[in-house]
Amino acid sequence: MSAVARAIRPFATRTLSQKLPLSSGLRRVSPATSFPRGSIRSFSQSTFFQEKRYTESHEWIELSADGKTAKIGITEYAAHSLGDVVYVELPAADLEVSAGEPVGAVESVKSASDVLSPVSGKVIQGNAVLEDKAKFINESPEGEAWIAEIEVSDPAELDGLLDAAAYKDTIDEDH
């Protein structure tokens, strides 16, 4: 390194580490100070509530942030196995279901299958989009093509369900 570079380096480092006026368009700020106070996400909420759970019979459930309601649907694997879905039987609102009981059904050109509720609860609503467009299940089975939204009676029932990795392992065993 040249003598000039060694002489300028401490000055340049000190200058660049200082905050420049906003009008210059350049500003070097440490990442810790770039977040306004209070905007940093708290990790006190369990990530469990943001993760889907699965059944061995190929249904998924996703608990909402309030921990009281959840959406239920069929997995991508199930949708692919069924083929082109032609009809979806949606549950009636206020239907009381227990874990393992049918909450709807899906019919395809290949076969028909009940959709079993992974947990106990009361149906809030069925996904009205599927009444007119059943094949939407093939397009977004684990997204917007959920079958039912329910009020969960006992969130602890979700503890007995599979996480994504365990569900994937069950699918791999089937092949």
Describe the structure in your own words.
Its cofactor is (R)-lipoate. The H protein shuttles the methylamine group of glycine from the P protein to the T protein. It is found in: Mitochondrion. Residues 69-151 form the Lipoyl-binding domain. Belongs to the GcvH family. The chain has five helices and nine strands, in the order αβββαβββββααβα. The radius of gyration is 26 Å and the shape is globular. With 175 residues, the chain is an alpha+beta fold. The termini are far apart. A six-stranded antiparallel β-sheet has the order 1-2-3-9-8-5. The protein has a domain at 48-152 and 160-172: OB fold (Dihydrolipoamide Acetyltransferase, E2P). The protein has helices at 3-17, 76-82, 129-132, 136-139, 164-174, and strands spanning 53-54, 59-63, 69-74, 85-89, 96-97, 102-108, 112-116, 121-126, 148-152. A hairpin with a 4-residue loop joins strand 1 (53-54) and strand 2.
